Amino acid sequence: MTDMHGRGFCPRCLLKDVPEGEALAALMAQWLEAIPPERRTEDALYRDRLSRCRACPHLSAGLCALCGCYVEYRAAQSRQRCPDVPGRW
Ligand code: SF4
After folding, report:
1. pTM, full prediction
2. What is the pLDDT of residue 15?
3. Residue 63: what are its φ and ψ, rounded to 5°?
4. What is the mean pLDDT of residues 3-20?
5. Percentage of the chain surpassing pLDDT 90?
6. Residues 21, 15: contact at Cβ < 8 Å?
7. Which of 19, 72, 77, 88 has the most neighbouring CB atoms within 10 Å?
8. Distance from the CA of 36 to the center of ligand 1, in angstroms?
9. Is the CB of residue 71 below 6 angstroms from any atom belonging to ligand 1?
10. Do residues 74 and 80 touch, judged by C-beta distance below 8 A?
């Protein structure tokens, strides 16, 4: 699959995996660091949420097509929920 510029495009990738996405990944790291500890998702749960996003048809290059969020950021906030089927995460 390619994007509008004909470059390789991975619909199943998280933002950190997107080619040429280093600048965005660095920005994401800053956003994640800024989440107060009491509002962060516990590490194992965070990894589980992202694994479910990776298997989801709504993931597109790090973005959730249903809510428009970067899933790495949404999943990192303990109070957030997946906007799709209740219980996905
Ligand atoms: S619908 Fe849910 S599981 Fe799918 S990409 Fe969005 S947040 Fe992740």
Report:
1. 0.81
2. 75
3. -105, 145
4. 65
5. 58
6. yes
7. 72
8. 23
9. yes
10. yes
